[in-house]
Design brief:
CATH topology: Rossmann fold
CATH superfamily: Response regulator
Oligomer: single chain
CATH architecture: 3-Layer(aba) Sandwich
Strand order of the largest sheet: 1-2-3
Distance between the termini: 16 Å
Number of domains: 1
Number of strands: 3
Structural class: alpha/beta
Order of helices and strands: EHEHEH
Helix content: 25-40%
Number of helices: 3
Strand content: 15-25%
Length: 73
C-alpha cells in the first residue's frame, strides 16, 4: 500500500505511477494531494491508482477505498 503525493522533488506522482506500471509492481496506490487540477483524478486512476483523496486526509476518506478493495472491513 502506497499513499502517494503528486507534488514531490525529483519525480512527480504521475511519474511514480508510470514507473510502478513499467516495473509491473503489484501494489495498491492511493493518491493524496492538495493539488487537484482538472483531469488529475482521471489520470491518476488511468495510471493504476485505486483512489484519490484531497488533503487534508481523514480516516473517513481512506476507509471506503480500502473496503472497496477488501483491505479493510
Amino acid at each position: 500500500m502506497i499513499f502517494l503525493d503528486l507534488t514531490m522533488p525529483v519525480m512527480n506522482g504521475f511519474q511514480v505511477l508510470e514507473a510502478i506500471q513499467h516495473e509491473g509492481l503489484d501494489t495498491f496506490v492511493i493518491v493524496v494531494s492538495a493539488d487537484v487540477q482538472c483531469g488529475a483524478v482521471e489520470r491518476a486512476k488511468a495510471l493504476g491508482a485505486i483512489g484519490f483523496i484531497s488533503k487534508p486526509v481523514s480516516p473517513e476518506a481512506i476507509l471506503p477505498i480500502l473496503a472497496e478493495y477488501g483491505l479493510h472491513e
